[in-house]
Amino acid sequence: MEHNMFIHILFMLVIAIVSIALLGRLGLPAILAYLLTGVISGPSGLHWFTQQQVHFVAELGVVLLMFTLGLEFSVPRLWSMRRTVFGLGSAQVIVTTFIAGGIAYLLGQNFVAAVVIGSAIALSSTAIVLKLMNEQGWLRRRHGELSISVLLFQDLAVVPMLILLPLLASDGTPMSLNGILYGLLTGILAFIGLMSFGKWVLPRIFDEVARSRSNELFVLSTLVVALVTGAFTQWLGLSMALGAFIAGMLLGESQYRRQLEADIRPFRDLLMGLFFISIGMLLDFNLVLLYWWQILLTLIAVVVLKIVIVYGLLQLAGEHARVALSTAISLGQVGEFSFVLLALAVNYQLLDKEVSTILVAVAVISMSFSPWLIRHSVDIAKRFKGGKPSQEMAEQTVVLPTSEDDDFVVILGYGRVGQTIARFLKTEAINYIVLDLDPTRVTESRAAGEPVYFGDACKMGILKRVGIRQASMVVVTFAEERQTEEALALSRKLAPDAKILVRTRDDSNLTELKEAGATQVIPESLEGSLMLVSQVLYKCGVPLPRIIKRLESERRNHYQYLHGFFSGTETDFTLDLLHAVSLSTSASSVGKKVADIPWSQLDVELRAVRRKGAEIEPAPDDWVLRRNDILMLVGKPRSIEKAEDYLLQG
């Protein structure tokens, strides 16, 4: 039995992988692939699992989703967009819920079911809309700003919905008004209690965790905080997702926010996949075939209703018709949180399975064609509404974090080097954002108003969160070689067009870093030598333009003059050495041309040739070697030894 379950799980994962790959080629979201996997694996398909078997694990996906949503809850950002978020957003949710719920009530649903149906229909897909808006470069346009505002309020509106659903039913019996008010009061008190806990206790906990420098401990602490707060609110008779949201919100304003989201993302994505698979298992194809015409009519009614409501509200607010229509079309689909509400409603026996199946099918179909609608929303609006919106409306931007500006610098590491770079960038009014792993340094710098965040620059998720793809330059300032290599590789992968400057201690791996994608490598020891050389030459009367030209030439030639030095008593076998070889009369290389010597095979470089006190640099290929010539060779100690033996003995 256990063996069969393992095989079924394996096949389900294979189906999910294939579905995501195929639907991805069609430009469809991964959510639909998970739903399809659930349909195939569930009672309507091969019947490997029931919805109840994966429900408890899948519910953790909702918990982690709400936790990350809480991390995104930015009070300053909401306040800067308060008019559109709390004005347009609240109006859209209330009006859509009222109209859709009212229609459901007139069609025979009870009051509670009508509220659930109206709430589910009022929500749009944050994941799909934001992803496609970002791909099209519309986040900064007026219709992008309006769409973000509505989605922000919808995400916030999920919280009271999650409080109300478990209160509306107790063992299938609806609660009284007093019971609902008591539950709301409990939720408010729980919120205040968790806020107090989060303000005074959570930051100290994560300060200690961060000081341990243990990535495993950080990840484990994040998961425990999300699940413990969820368990606490569930113990109070509320939803687990509510507690996780509050925990995320508490940590959203801390310096650990970006690292927390990067750590939680793999778990969230996996468990959310299981959640949507469990939703797919709710789809009964017999019911879908039986109610196919109701599904199509409901689909058309829902999409048209949402578009009309958003368009009407924006027109009343004085927005241009074209901007209003493109915004309304972008928000016409049913969102992923609707699945959460429908699943909870079925579990609490607030909604019939037939009605849930119809609504899930409507949501799936609306999300299937929403990418096409969003991509063509501007063209459709242009066709229906002629004329051009004003420049002010078309290009008005959203107030976004520094990391999303058109031109900014990402600094990885905030030690003395990183801080020095940041100070000069600030004096030139160049935007920048910093990642560092020292909690004390991050706390102090953030208290001073610096855009510094706690995060591991060797993680792809955290680099994405700081907006490295939009950066014009990335500066890697780590002293540790492993960190530098990993951060460089990820930075080049995520920002192929950005300039990447890498700071190193010396030139031991300069070539490797250049090959890995560094635009320029700055070895501290060599740059220090160049600065000292520049001062020496300047004090000796060499003109400043000539000094600058010589320094730039050295940098372009990868510090050629700074590679290779005469070895002392203690030889470092990892560095290039400079060694002089004097050709005696019997040396086998006497009489040969420089081009005849296999320098590349010997793995050494001929830096110069000295003859009768004069130095020829570099020696031409047709230069004939004579006795008493002194050859200046640069290379590793063993290669130098091998080359000297060849030059003298042949």
Task: Give the topology, please.
Blueprint: H1 2-25, H2 30-41, H3 51-72, H4 75-80, H5 82-106, H6 111-122, H7 126-136, H8 142-168, E1 169-170, E2 173-174, H9 177-200, H10 202-211, H11 215-235, H12 240-252, H13 257-282, H14 285-290, H15 292-316, H16 321-330, H17 336-347, H18 353-375, H19 377-384, H20 391-395, E3 409-412, H21 416-427, E4 432-436, H22 439-447, E5 452-454, H23 460-465, E6 473-476, H24 481-494, E7 499-504, H25 510-515, E8 520-523, H26 524-539, H27 544-556, E9 577-582, H28 599-602, E10 604-611, E11 614-616, E12 630-635, H29 637-649
Parallel strand pairs: 3-4, 3-6, 4-5, 6-7, 7-8
Antiparallel strand pairs: 1-2, 9-12, 10-11, 10-12
Q: In words, what does this structure look like?
A:
- The chain contains 29 helices and 12 strands.
- The strands form 3 sheets. The chain has a 6-stranded parallel sheet with strand order 5-4-3-6-7-8, sandwiched between helices.
- It is elongated, with a radius of gyration of 33 Å.
- The chain starts with a helix and ends with a helix.
- InterPro entries: Cation/H_exchanger_TM, K/H_exchanger, Na+/solute_symporter_sf, NAD(P)-bd_dom_sf, RCK_C, RCK_C_sf, RCK_N.
Shape: elongated
* Proportion of residues in extended strands: 5-15%
SS content category:
alpha/beta
pLDDT averaged residue by residue: 77
List segments where confidence is low: pLDDT < 50 over at least 5 consecutive residues: 388-405, 565-573
Helix content: 55-70%
Distance between the termini: 75 Å
Number of helices: 29
**Order of the strands making up the biggest sheet:** 5-4-3-6-7-8
How many β-strand stretches?
A: 12
The major pleated sheet works out as:
6 strands, parallel
Oligomer state of the chains in this structure: single chain
Radius of gyration: 33 Å
Membrane topology: Multi-pass membrane protein
Protein name: Monovalent cation:proton antiporter-2 (CPA2) family protein
Organism: Shewanella subflava
Keywords: Antiport, Ion transport, Membrane, Potassium, Potassium transport, Transmembrane, Transmembrane helix, Transport
